[in-house]
Amino acid sequence: MKNGKVGVGIVGIGFGLSAELPGFRACEGVEVLAVCSARRERVEAAAQQHSIPHAFTDYGEMLTVEGLDLVSIVTPVYLHHPMTVAALEAGKHVLCDKPTAMNVAEAREMYTGAQTAGVIHMIDHELRFNPTRRKLKQMLDEGYIGQLYHVNANIFSDFRADPIARKWDWWSEAEKGGGALGAAASHQIDLLRWWVGEPLRVSGQLGTFVKQRQLPDSTEMRTVTSDDQCSFMAESGNGALASVFITNVARHPQGMRTEFQGERGTLILDAEERLWGRRAGESGLTEFTVPDPNLDLPNVQKNVWAVSFVSLARYLTDCIRAGKPLEEGATFADGLRCQIVLDALRQSWAERRWVDVPTTG
Fold it and tell me: How many CB atoms lie within 10 A of CB 218?
């Protein structure tokens, strides 16, 4: 660390600048030193706008910046593996966006490489740092609803509904890791693992409803190869059954809603990010929502992703500064386990059957 500050480099100028940059700047003793993206004019303009000292189009060059301790990779999925490996070889701590990689083989190499390098490694599953979701986990662990029977999660988003307004890009290419399964289901898989435990068997489904999208700066349409809708069922070791439905092409979005049904009660995380509970014999729901103090921070977007990222960034950089391993959040080991489930879901859909989830990576 230079001058006692954790030096950060961000790769990617989408979520990387809209959510991660304000999050890192809300941390004490942290300095964002560099930003990297493919198009020179865009990355240089972004660096100037946000007062970031260094701008790069060459990822390898960014890794040579003096005082760079942590690299945050917020790129298309197919770049996660090569960029992570390069950062690990350079001795950098790594925060990688989800999903971890294109497949289990890549995720395994990223995890073993991080272990060999002896650096801190994390997957950006920021919802683990959301106070209300932490309260939900606490209540599940303490047996508020007793034995868990069912989990039902629904996400209705309009993110990809309009094929003209939301044009063709890497997200439209399965070959580059685009699609709802990796982008959205990976979060749900990580939360289910954290809340409920490892899934033993899964059954998955993928759909592409908007089959063509308009190319940028053109009226030409191109075929979409990625999924814009997915669903899956998962059985956990304690017998609980989870059902998840995700669509990014809903014309009228309804947000995220997750319900837990157990032998002694119900827990509901509603689309307004409120947590409700009701036990057997009670006449109505009781609210258990825990407000996030980061909502009051200036320059941080008022959505659960950006606000939760602040807590992730603080915890991660505190661990780097103290030289201690992570005890919270999703590490590359969790990323590998999530990737194993994702690959099993793809196999399930290809073969139209339930698939056992391997217990080892």
Answer: 10
